[in-house]
Amino acid sequence: MSASRSSGLPRGIRFAALVSLVLAALTGWSALSEATQLEHFYESRERQLEVDYPTWMGDKALMETVVRTHFSALEPMREPRLVLMGVLSIACAFVFVAAARMLRPDGLPREGMRKMLGRAALVVAVLRTIDGAQLAVVARRMGIAMAEGLRHLPAYQDDVGTQVASSVPSVAVFASVLGTAIIAGTFALLGQYFRSDSVRDAVLARDPEPEED
Question: Which long-range contacts (CB under 8 A, 24 or more apart) does 59-63 make?
Answer without folding.
Answer: 59/149, 59/153, 61/149, 62/146, 62/149, 62/150, 62/153
